[in-house]
Amino acid sequence: MASSEIPSTSELPQFPESLWERTTEFPRFPRLQGETNADVVVVGGGITGLTTAYLLMKEGLQVALVEMGSLLHGTTGHTTAKITAQHGLIYDQLIGHFGEEKARLYYEANEEAVRFMQNFAKEHGIDCGMVEEDAYLFAESDDELKDLKKEWTAYQKLGIPGEWQESLPLPLLVKGAIKLPGQARFHPLQYLHFMVQELQKGGAAIYEHTTIAEKVDKANGRLNLHTEDGASSITCNYAVSASHFPFYDGGAMYFSRLHAERSYIVAIEPETSFPGGMYINCGNPKRSLRAAEWNGKQLVLVGGEGHKTGKALCTIRNYETLELYGASLLGAKNIPFRWSAQDLITLDQVPYIGQATNDDPHILVATGFAKWGMSTGTLAALMFRDRIMKRDNRYEEVFTPQRFKADPGLKNFIVQNAGVAKDLVAGKIGLVHRKVDELKNDEGAIVKHLGKRAGAYRDEKGQLYLLDATCTHMGCEVDWNEGERSWDCPCHGSRFNYKGEVIEGPATQPLTPLTQHQHEG
Prior knowledge:
The protein is an alpha+beta fold.
């Protein structure tokens, strides 16, 4: 609900919907049934999974792609879709933590992914709105300027072809900015629609609404993956986890080395022309801007307001804040879309890409893209292709999931997991004052049910959905996300719809329903 500081608005769409999903249709695919075989199984139907499957199919391998929900309805379908190697204030940190050589490799890896995507769209004539843009990282205060100057020094040390700017094309007063030319924006689902078509033509198997269990059986040099219900299985030489949160842990404790954040986007139709370029500030709260096209109109995607999943008191406020920010810069005739995305972030801000555990070279993982998954997801696919085809890749050591740097990894590990423990305890003992009967239509909340906490949502027609509010991953208590009408877990980022069905992992089991009869009893 809107606060007194942020005025209420009638401009925002009632329900969240991604521009990308509205404007792209995909064929539907069956569930995995029975037993089958493949050379490689790719788990996850986003940009990483689809690009990996496409590249390996082109190498002549038999590929099966398995998606828990529907293709491209996860983070890829809700991205801002900026393709860039400019990842905020990253390079000064990388030099400090990894040294100049690895920091340079991080840049070159992402720049290679940017070029691959631009060339791929051009080579195949994909109508996906691929537009080359300059990317800008800007400072608005003296403290931010100090950090930006450190980043500029890092650019110079690493030979990154940035340019220092004293002002922006936008009507923003800034202290300074770094421009990185030659980056890009695009329509991600139209880009990936081509890959889906090619996978179909090439005979790759695609399965939707199929959840793969964590346990992987190994026999005779082959892997056997089972569905969560145990009814079906698929045997392969390699398994690739491209499922946002890894489907396979193998003792690597990814849940303790990743945290989930949500961020928000409003698509505004501006009153004044947008000057081009892609923009992000180097302070907090984050603000991101880029253009997009829809129905012959120019839109501007205004992003930001990130927070740890399950930690926002009122997510509608995040949308309202972005709406006001965009309108203050460019005016807003109309706001046809709003949506949000969830991203996983590693202890040191660098994605985990490579062998999932020390003891099995045939299970690979890509996760922790930290809101830059268009370039790093594509990079992961290129690295997986090389790994499975037994080619050297000079980026492996930078992104290996087996790394653990005492600085900053140990400190972040302790702080992050102390926070999880706090959330676990607080969720169990927190007082609940709401009653089911107090809920209005289209309202959700944690309520008291038979003396215990429960999650309740009453839809627009008055039907009540009552759920056990305990996350099925590791037992934390979920909270209601008003802006998305979902139940979000603050511990490890699992999300469930109002019916209790899994939207995002690591949870694989739904929340337990509590019937209205139980409530009345």
